[in-house]
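Putative tartrate transporter structure dump, as promised
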Amino acid sequence: MASVSIGEKSLETRTLRKVIIRVVPFLMALYFVNYLDRTNLGIAKADISEHLQLTASMFGLASGVFFIGYVLVEVPSNLALERFGARRWLARIAVSWGIVAVAIGFAPNAATLLVLRFLLGVAEAGLFPGVIFYLTRWFPGAYRVRMVALFMMASPIAAAIGTPLAAWMIQAGEGLFGLAGWQFMMIGVGLPAIILGIICWFYLTDRPADAHWLQPDERQWLVDVLADEERDVAGVFDVPLRRALTSPRIWALSLVYFGVAYGLYALAFFLPSIVSGFKQMFNVHLSIVQVGLITAVPYTLAAIAMYLWSRHADRKGEHVWHVAIPMGLGGLAIPIALYLHSPLLVMIPVSIAAMGVFSAIPSFWALPAQFLTGAAAAGGIGLINSIGNLGGFAAPYATGALNQFTGNDKAGMWAVGIIMLVSAVVVVVLRATPDRSTQPDR
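structure tokens r here:
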């Protein structure tokens, strides 16, 4: 990409630095809270299961029913973001999910918990694909994988920092205000979403043309570069929304992302219980805070690996193998962990699996943007994320059911590894298979 030098720094560098500082940290904070709110059930598994009398399969259903609501509303929500603007719509998403997240802390029984988890999915629908779409409106193609990686670092950071924090809140909040520890934690991590949603309304800018915090020359440079890129894509792939939503390539990418989400949420919901199981397997006694700290290790490594791998992808300009390789390695690593005989040895393949699944995500989201623009991009990205996130429903429910049926966690973890491997194969096959449905009529 050509750069125009002004003084000591190029206009390109100066502009993008301002955009990164203005946009990315806030989106990371939003996703940090979002990731913690959707996965904090796994941290409180033992306490909430005892309090509400949940079996393993009921807990899996409570974990996964979130994604049913999420999937049903995902595409309409992303189209609404494109129609009404990111500032308004992301603010609405954050405030509504924060209210439901707080309400979960007051759930009196399993049925109420299931309903509220479903509503949490409805409230959160559109946030992640909305942010991915929003980033395409602010960053040229050569920078997008890195920007997605920076934004996505919020999820392993949330797991690394938020998990022990939430575990501490469960421990410290027991009995405060007449609440059980898990209730105090749910309320405590739900409130920041409401606060961030209110800030979002006043802070975010919908598009570069309205960015008065940029200098006129910076604003014009960014508008021109993004417009040129969109014209280039539209000239090759002039795809209407309906065709995008029925494209075999979009549905194949949805299948790939199903495997990514399956691995991601299997780790999120069951890694704390795997670490807790060290007591039974290896006679290692751990407090809930120690479980949270040990659980943080794979996610810390995943955050580092994800950023470095995304930089490598941007330098090479290649994304398919940057999805397939980490997904394949992660899929192979998960079953290996089941047959090792010390806590340290178990955590090595678990860490590799976490690094694999997180490293694949930024490069994955570069794929649909290569042939979709405008409303087709909003709808296509929303569809991929919604169908793919069925893996978020299937992973905790299937893993919990398999664990309950077999009496151990081996079958569930084998399923995770196999599905991740299948996703790696599909994305490679997809690369070699042209999709005529995304080509314009000649």
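The chain has one domain: 21-204+224-230+241-431.
lmk if u need the other ones
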